[in-house]
Amino acid sequence: MSAPPRGDVHQTASHPGEPATDKPLSSPDRVVAAIINGIAMGRFVPGQRLLEADLTRSLNISRGPVREALKRLAAERIITLTRHRGAHIRSLTRQEVDELMQVIEVLTGFAAGLAARRIDEGGNRAHFIRAYERLMACRYAGDGFASMESRDRFYGAMLHIGHNRELARLLPATQVQLIRMQFQSYLHSADRERLFHEYESIGEAILAGDAIQADRFTRLHMDRSRKIYLGLPDAAFALDSGDNS
């Protein structure tokens, strides 16, 4: 297992668009932050085992806080924690992907509409343009870390300028990253080109201040992505054991 980053001793933003604070992290919080950041950076991928010994050594934290953190992440359905197999980064079943994408569709559509309504307030337009142009620059770069990060920044900019903290808390950002990593090797170049065409439609609607179209294009994008994922072979999904928690 790749060692997780040591992480900062202060609280970082847990959702895109949510500002970081200077609140000191407890030991379990440090472990949670290290694993979440590891997922965001591509160091941890669906199905990967998390070893307590690696986490305690790399973070210089005792086993008690590590185990508490793993239980919290299991409750949030970011990892699976079983008696005989230990802790693993969560892989989603077909049903879980279907249900999660339906929720993401509603929340991101709402986020895009809010962003369009507030695009001309303060420095919102310049902030969004930077994220949008960075995403478009990755159009032909494949599905590496830079491309995944640019998508996170694009949606993060939506949340930032929409300025709805409850929405930022509700949006399952880490699960979105897990979905991308779980399926990225199954996507073809035509799928990626379609994605960027849809990002372009979303971005232009937000910049035009058209909240209705921004919401509509974002929901269509998420619905099409959901259908692509659900059309993948069984090997792309975790087995449905009835309870993956």
Q: In angstroms, what is the radius of gyration?
A: 18 Å
> Termini separation (Å)?
21 Å
Helix tally equals: 10
CATH topology of the largest domain, which one?
Four Helix Bundle (Hemerythrin (Met), subunit A)
Indicate the percent of residues in helices.
Answer: 55-70%
Main sheet properties: 3 strands, antiparallel
CATH architecture of the largest domain: Up-down Bundle
Briefly say what this structure is:
The protein has 245 residues and is mostly helical. The protein folds into 2 domains: 27-89, Winged helix-like DNA-binding domain superfamily/Winged helix DNA-binding domain (Arc Repressor Mutant, subunit A); 94-236, Four Helix Bundle (Hemerythrin (Met), subunit A) (Up-down Bundle), CATH 1.20.120.530.
Question: How would you describe what is shown here?
Answer:
- Helix content is about 60%, strand content about 5%.
- The chain is mainly alpha-helical and about 240 residues long.
- It has 2 domains: about 25-90, Arc Repressor Mutant, subunit A (Orthogonal Bundle), CATH 1.10.10; about 95-235, Four Helix Bundle (Hemerythrin (Met), subunit A) (Up-down Bundle).
- Helix 4 crosses helix 6.
- The protein starts with about 25 loop residues before the first helix and ends in a 15-residue tail after the last helix.
- The model is unreliable at about 1-20 (pLDDT under 50).
